[in-house]
Amino acid sequence: MSALFYIAICMAAGLLMTRLIRLIHLPNVTAYLIAGVLIGPCVFNLVGSEELATFSVITECALGFIAFSIGDEFKISTLKEIGGPALLITVLESVGAVVCVMSITMALGFDKILCIMLGALSASTAPAATLLVVRQYKADGPLTKMLLPVVAADDATGLIAYSICVSIALSIINGETLTAANTVLLPLLHIIEALAIGAGLGTLLALTHRFFRSHSNRMSFCIAFVMLGVGIADWLGLSNLLLCMALGAMYVNLSNDAEKILKCVDDWTYPLFMLFFVISGAQLNLAVLPKVGLIGIVYIFARFGGKFLGAWLGGTITHQPPVVKDNLGWALMPQAGVAIGMATLALSQLPLEYGQQIQTVILSATLVYEVVGPIATKNALKRAGEIHANA
C-alpha cells in the first residue's frame, strides 16, 4: 500500500477516537495519541514501523508550524501588556520545573542523559488546552490575565532550554569534555543563529505582502516560508523550532494583516497537527514502559512541583494577589504539542535507546497531563472566582 493509504488510516482513526473521547469530556489531543497507540505496531499494527519511518516529513513540517504559531504570541504590543511580572513568573516557573526534574531524577540514580533531557522538556506547557478551558467557561480576572501570557511565553523558554540541554547531552554521549564553550557558548551561538535566520525569513515573508494581496496567496507564502525554514534548519543543523518561532514573531510584528492570515494557516494546519499527534502515539514503544515506569512517575510529579513552586515564588516576588500566586501553578499543569515535538526531535538527534525512552516518558506523561491538566486548570479558575459560565 502507498503512504497515502496509511495517512488516511491515521486521520480516520484520530477523528473516530474523538467521538469516543468526547463522551468523557477529554481533549482531542488525548484522542489522537490513543488512536495512534491502537493503530501502531505495539497494538493492532495497522500502521507498521516501516510506514511510520516514511512519515518523518510530516512530523518535521508539523514541528515547524507548531513553533510558527508560538511566534504569534510575541507581538510587541502583547509583550508590553504582559509587563515584568509575567516575564519573571514565566522564567521562575520554567526554571523551577527544569531544576526539580533534573535534580530529583539524578538524586534517584537515573541515567544522566535522561535526567538532562527530561529536565529540558519539562519547561513547556500546552497553551491550546489552557485557552480552550478559559474560553469554555468564559473565565476572566487577575489569574486569567496572568495565565494566558505565561503559558505562551514558557514554550519559548522550553525551546531554549532544549537547545542548550541537547548540546550538553550530545557532548556527554560523544565523550567530549564539558567546557563553557561546548555547553553554553556553542548552544547559545546556534540559538542566536537560528533566531537571526528566522527573523530574516519573517521579514522577507512580510515583504511579500506588498506584491501579493489575496489571502490565499499570502497564506501560501506563509506555508512555503515555514517549510523553507524547516529545510534551512535541517541543512545547517539548527533548531527548526527556534527558527520557525522567530519567523512567526517577526512576521506578526511587521505585517498588519498577519492575524487574519494566521487564522487561515491554522485551518490549513489542523489536519497536519492531528496527523502529528496520531503518528506520535503510534511511535510509542509500549515495551519500554516497564523500564521507564518509575522515572515517568517521578517526571510527572517533579515537573508539576517545580512549576507550582516557581509560579508561587514569582507571584510572591511581584506582589500578586493570593488568587494568582496560589492558583497559577495548578493551571500550568497541561503539557502537549511542543513537548511532544521536542521529544520527537530528540528521537532523531540522540541515540535510539535514549530517544525512545524520552519519547515514551513524554507521551505517557502527556496522556496524564491532558486528562488531569484541564481539570486542574478549571478548578484553579473556579477557586479564583473567575469562571462565569456554567461549570
UniProtKB/TrEMBL annotation:
Keyword Transmembrane helix attributed: yes
Membrane topology: Multi-pass membrane protein
Keyword annotations of the record: Membrane, Transmembrane, Transmembrane helix
GO MF assignments: antiporter activity
Subcellular location: Membrane
Main location: membrane
GO process terms (BP): proton transmembrane transport
Pfam families: Na_H_Exchanger
Transmembrane intervals: 6-22, 29-47, 53-74, 86-110, 116-134, 146-173, 185-207, 219-252, 272-302
Keyword Membrane: yes
Taxonomy, superkingdom: Bacteria
Classification via InterPro entries: Cation/H_exchanger_TM, Na+/solute_symporter_sf
GO CC annotation: membrane
PANTHER family, per the entry: CATION_H+ EXCHANGER DOMAIN-CONTAINING PROTEIN (PTHR43021:SF2), NA(+)/H(+) ANTIPORTER-RELATED (PTHR43021)
Listed name of the protein: Cation:proton antiporter
Organism listed in the record: Stecheria intestinalis
Lineage per the UniProt record: Bacteria, Bacillati, Bacillota, Erysipelotrichia, Erysipelotrichales
